[in-house]
Amino acid sequence: VKDLLGEIYSHLYKIYSTLSEDRSEYLDDFNPGVKNICCMSLKYWLYDKIVTRDLEENEIKELFEGWKNHIHPNTKYHEIHHCEFHNLNKDEIKRIKKIYALNTILQSTMEISETCNENECKYKDYFEQGLIEFINSANKCSDDSMLEGYCAEFKDFLEICYKNNQNNGIKLFRDYFAPSVHNGMRYLLSVKNYPNPTLYAYINDNKWLNWERISDLLNAQKRTTIAATS
To answer: What is the residue-wise DSSP string for 20-39?
Structure first.
């Protein structure tokens, strides 16, 4: 756990240095203005480490306590001050990791889809699992508080998506619009954001959305309004 905390601190320092344009060599092609991508990447990296290293619940608790007590208060990273780790259990980490994986796949789908055939592709399974988890999380967090735990983490993800200004990954808008070949997006579902206006979720269009299992899932969701409270 201490080693992992040290890795988190190291990554935060690299991100802060890059955003401050002091040490840009850490990420050669990085746009210093894309702060949200840094936060999303850091979270996805940490959750993947927790799952792949098969940390126990007590180790996960120790990790988040170490973040809260030793790293968060003492690290200069005001540029990404909104990047916060919530106290999640192992099952919740696995679930939110699927959503972050979905967003990562959507951002690089051209490269990934070209290496996959129609019958077998592990990324398609990740894509489907992440999409289902995104929909289920929107359902769950319509009833649960989004101020703590898993739903707070999901809300953070939604806020990052809302601030996404590129046509990739998952995007949220306050107004519904008809997708077109020009913007390359496909409508997914509406997310009620009480007491604020409804948000509309879009994902970048790609051939996987025509895959039978995914297409059936999307068609069912188009007939359903999924709610998430603020």
So the answer is: TTS-GGGSTT--TT-HHHHH
